Amino acid sequence: MLLAIDTSAGTSVAVVDLTRGVIAERGEADTMRHAEIVGPFILECLREADIAPAALSGVVGGMGPGPFTGLRVGIASARVFALGAGKPLVPVISHDAIAYGHYRRGHSGPLVVVTDARRREIYWSAYSQADAVGLPVRVGVPGLAKPAELDDPTWLHALWPRIDAATVAAGDLGLVAELSFAHHRPFAANAPLYLRSPDVTLSNGPKRVSR
Amino acid sequence: MTIMNRTDPLVLGIETSCDETGIGIVRGTTLLSNTIASSMDEHARYGGVVPEIAARAHLDELVPAINAAIAEAGIRLHDLDAIAVTCGPGLSGALMVGVGAAKALAVALDKPIYAVNHLVGHVGADLLHRSIPTSRTDTSDAVPLEYPTIALLVSGGHTSLLLVRDLVSDVELLGETIDDAAGEAFDKVARLLSLPYPGGPQIDRVAADGNPKAIRFPRGLSQPKDMAAHRYDFSFSGLKTSVARFVEQRQDAGEPVPTADVAASFREAVVDILLTKALAACADYGVPRLLLGGGVIANQRLRQIATERTDAAGIALRIPPLSLCTDNGAMIAALGAQLIMAGSEPSTLEFGADSTLPVDQIQV
Ligand SMILES: [Zn+2]
């Protein structure tokens, strides 16, 4: 069994298993309460699944892409929970969970996943299909764009079906990890996908105070 | 949940309110580890703490810092009795990293969690026993913290004057800065003098050759008219502007800026106003004890004048060692341990990060 945590959009936590699927899941779309609810969600999912941290086989962390402040809460929680429980951290790209869920519910063929990056920008990833075991095949990197760039007919994936997702289901995130492990696929890098530099401006020295 | 040891609890503290990722481990009042990873160097080129850079660094440093702390303390995470974490005040995005991590650790280990106030943590640092006294004023091995005490906490993020009647139950805010923190003023004046970040040590270095009486810079909120509403409050923006105006006048006149004198006179103004107000609070409340905390306490002149003036006034001065004055996780663990020993119940898991947490909220 795996504990999965994602705060790249709202907050979602789940306990999953390859054979039993999603055993427990909690979700909240509010993007302002990650730090408050991530702890209770973890506790509730473990209790509902009736599993102790020591009995887990790993902790799945959604690496984004996602707006900085919220994304970090989930990654910090996943990393430190894994440390505390003495279990491996399994990094998964959050968009892969959205695509996986969509394919699982019957979609086939190409797909573009889009999430809100704030500041009038969006995150996107492109998938060609689900493979034989059901894992989404990502063919376009998680990227950051202005909405107009994806509407441009000359864009590579302009004609592909697009889903705009407001939430990421940790259950799907966990199942992507289970399937990837079972079928010897690589995991993502253990690094947050901010896809943006911190906004800071180098000042040109102190401003004058006298006229 | 496991039964908690309330007499000598083993507590891990997590501090991420500004640019230091601090992990501390204490057993009761005994310091076992004070691990600090700072992102200060990354902020240097911007002349001040950039919140997003600080928060990113916390996420990168947390796990290595926890590992280093438990190795140094010679414990296993499962040995812990509780987790303590700073939930405010501080930079919101930075605080949230520590809060999320602390909750996850508490659930993973099935341990209680204590969400505590950063400023009160600075006072709690003074309760930690150390094997070797680190300075003449480091008296904490010999004498436990006595109540009530006035506490002056000065850093780049806060400048606060507290009346501490009891660390775990009665802390009152007497005053605080109404604009810049004192540490920010040091950074800004350092930039005016073309000195690097962080400004405090640079001003200290340059001021060593200067005359502190060369220029009379203003002491903020010290006029009789300010005394009614702002008796214990601080203001440093007028001082900074006054230094800027002085520097500009010299530059406009084509004269060299007397950097050493400006630095020494500026530092004297800051030290004077900080200690004048702190000693006024001691006198007004009849409290013969003053505790200093925060990164600006590293300032040589502040320590020197504080020693002179408290000696003259018959006030006992306490200064924790510098590694416990700057932001750190040990002070958070120490406050958590004090709360446990006083019988406080753990925090519930629902608390959030509160960037403006009032100082009288010792535990959330
Ligand atoms: Zn501080």
Automatic annotation (TrEMBL), chain A:
<dbReference type="GO" id="GO:0016740">
    <property type="term" value="F:transferase activity"/>
</dbReference>
<feature type="domain" description="Gcp-like">
    <location>
        <begin position="33"/>
        <end position="128"/>
    </location>
</feature>
<dbReference type="GO" id="GO:0002949">
    <property type="term" value="P:tRNA threonylcarbamoyladenosine modification"/>
</dbReference>
<dbReference type="InterPro" id="IPR043129">
    <property type="entry name" value="ATPase_NBD"/>
</dbReference>
<dbReference type="InterPro" id="IPR022496">
    <property type="entry name" value="T6A_TsaB"/>
</dbReference>
<dbReference type="GO" id="GO:0005829">
    <property type="term" value="C:cytosol"/>
</dbReference>
<keyword id="KW-0808">Transferase</keyword>
<dbReference type="InterPro" id="IPR000905">
    <property type="entry name" value="Gcp-like_dom"/>
</dbReference>
<protein>
    <submittedName>
        <fullName>tRNA (Adenosine(37)-N6)-threonylcarbamoyltransferase complex dimerization subunit type 1 TsaB</fullName>
    </submittedName>
</protein>
<dbReference type="Pfam" id="PF00814">
    <property type="entry name" value="TsaD"/>
</dbReference>
